[in-house]
Every structure is written in structure tokens, then in C-alpha cells.
Amino acid sequence: MFSFAVDVLAGRARAGRLLTPHGAVDTPAFMPVGTAGAVKAVTPRDLHEVGAQIVLANTYHLMLRPGDELVAELGGLHGFTGWRGPWLTDSGGYQVMSLAKLRTLDEEGVTFRSHLDGTEYVLTPERSMQVQMNLGADIVMAFDECPMLPAPRDVVAAAAARTTRWAERSRRAHTRRDQWLFGIVQGGVDAELRERSARELVAQDFPGYAVGGLAVGEAKPDTMRVVAQMDRLLPEDRPRYLMGVGTPADLVEAVARGIDLFDCVLPTRNARNGQLFTRHGRLSIRNARYRRDPRPPDPGCSCPTCTTASRAYLRHLHLAGEMTAATLMTVHNLFFYLDTLRNMRQSIVLGRFEEFRGEMLRALSAAADGVDS
Ligand SMILES: [Zn+2]
Prior knowledge:
Blueprint: E1 3-10, E2 13-20, E3 23-27, E4 29-31, H1 44-50, E5 55-57, H2 59-64, H3 68-73, H4 76-80, E6 87-89, H5 93-99, E7 101-105, E8 110-113, E9 120-123, H6 125-135, E10 139-141, H7 153-173, E11 180-185, H8 191-203, E12 209-211, H9 220-233, E13 240-242, H10 248-255, E14 261-263, H11 266-272, E15 275-278, E16 281-284, H12 311-319, H13 323-349, H14 353-365
Helix pairs in contact: 1-13, 6-7, 7-8, 8-9, 11-13, 12-13, 13-14
The structure holds zinc ion.
Residues 297-298, 301, 303, 305-306, 332, 335 line the site of zinc ion (ZN).
């Protein structure tokens, strides 16, 4: 039902394939973020059109609304939403820390009030597993504690140690054989804590591992140092998922350090704010210079938006507050991310990943004519 294999290695970059009960995922892969069971502004048809192979949903949001039992009753995420391909759910831990009110955290779990209506909830490793089994994603995550950085070393150490104990409880509570449960490595940017966390989780023998606790306020060189360290410590034959990262440049740098899976809100959130990702950097559609610009967002892009819409039109729709602006720009940004990873994978297969990496980083840093940065 599940398998993962690395087919080609180029340096430390890996081209692989993840098989799930709802379809295959070619890695390295980017997972669009479908917070409450939908990727904001787009439909499942759009997701197929841009080539998405797996979508992420947030446990925290869905347990609050509409409730995981209702989702289970209506066929889980695959039956309830229109996306029939692979799903991944996060553990809820990160969003409890970033969104919920009046949290109290102890060894048992987290008690918090919903940011929607103040209702009190308790999220424990066991409850997170129950919710994720109800949601029915193909890949689910162990419940973890993710401290925001910078944080004192003892806080990061305690969170990492607790994450190990919660991973063990998550494993015991998780009983669905048609789901893969991944462990999450914590430890901030401290090499010793990261190593300890990785070794303890690897000893628990998860089918895949996530690198959590990054993109939470640390400096970029620290992020990549930790990723490279994880490459040395995590088993080669298991998928590695870097949570919440990042920009196109981050993706190629993390792939160069052995990462297989990514999720990030940047392409979708920035699209709604009028920012487009292109191979030559970012383009802010509000900029007055695009008022009469008949060119597509990225002349080299073959996405449904670039083949039909001009910068001038998108700027007009965005400034007029038309919902279509968000849809068209989300389609482009997702296509750009997914296409970048498809090309990256191809370059690994062809043995020219290092050239691809160099060309991509050069193009991103050299602001081209008509693009802001
Ligand atoms: Zn495009």
C-alpha cells in the first residue's frame, strides 16, 4: 500500500517516488497548503491542472470546524473534499502554539481556547492521532512541541525531549494501517539537541521523518546547517519532509541537502496579497509600472494564468478586489513552485542538478527587466 524509494542520487539531492493508497508522489515534491480542506482560492480541478500530487490540511483548523467526526462521517478528507489524491495532515501542535488563545501546556498535552469562539479543547498525542485518523489523510504527523525561535536552550531542550515522548505515545495511539505516521525532529538550531532528537526518533523506527521547528524565526544559514545535519542522521531509505519552508531558493538549497517533501503558505498567501513568484524573482502586481503592461506575469511560464492574463489585467483585478485575482495568481504561483520542483527532479535524474541549482540561484538574484526584485 505504501512505499518509498530513492531512484537517483545526485550529490545529496534525491529523486524518488512515494506511493500511497491514493496515488504516487514524485519527489522532491511541494505540497500546497489546504488549511481547512481547501487550498484557498482554487478548486481541486486547478490543483490537478498545476500538477499537484499531494495536498496538506491542518488538523487544528479541521478539528475546530467542521469537526473531525463530521469529516469522517462524510468519507474523510478524500470523500468530503473534492481532492481524491494523497493528503497529509499536520499534528495540530504548531497551530495551537501560533493561533490558539490561553494555552496551557504540560506533559499530558495542550489545553487551549479556539481562536474562533473561545471553546476549550485539549490536544494530546492520543487526541491528535484520533483526529488525524478521523480526517483520514494518507500521511499523518506525530504530535510535537514546536517552540518559536529564538528561545532559551533549556526551553528548546525540554520541547525536543517532550516531542520524543509524545512521538512514542503517538505511535501507540495510531492504529490505522492505511496511514503512514511520520515522526518530527525538533531541537531548534542547536546541533547537540538536534542530534539527540533525531537519534531518539530514528530509534522509534518511523516510515518517514519531518524536520520541524525551522522557519520559526531563525537565521537562514542556521536553517540550512540543520537540514544538512539531518541528512547525515536520518535513514537514507525514508522520506524526509522539511516543514513550512520556504522560498524557491530555500527549496533548491534544501533539496541539495537531501530533502524530499515541502509545504509552505508562501505561494498561496503571497498570491492573495498580489505577489507573484517568477524565475527572475518576485513581482508585486500593485506596482504602477504594470498598469499598461501587456506581458504575462512570467513570459517563460506555461501555466493557465500566464497563457491568458496580462500583468495589466491582474493588476486591475487585484486593485478592484475581484476574487478572480486571487484565483489566477494562486494558480500561477502554485504552478511555478510545482514546475520548479519538476524541473529540479528532472535535473537530478539527468545528473545535472548542480547546473540547475546554479542557474536557478543566478536567475533569482539577477533582477530582470520588468520584475521588482
Ligand atoms: Zn504562470
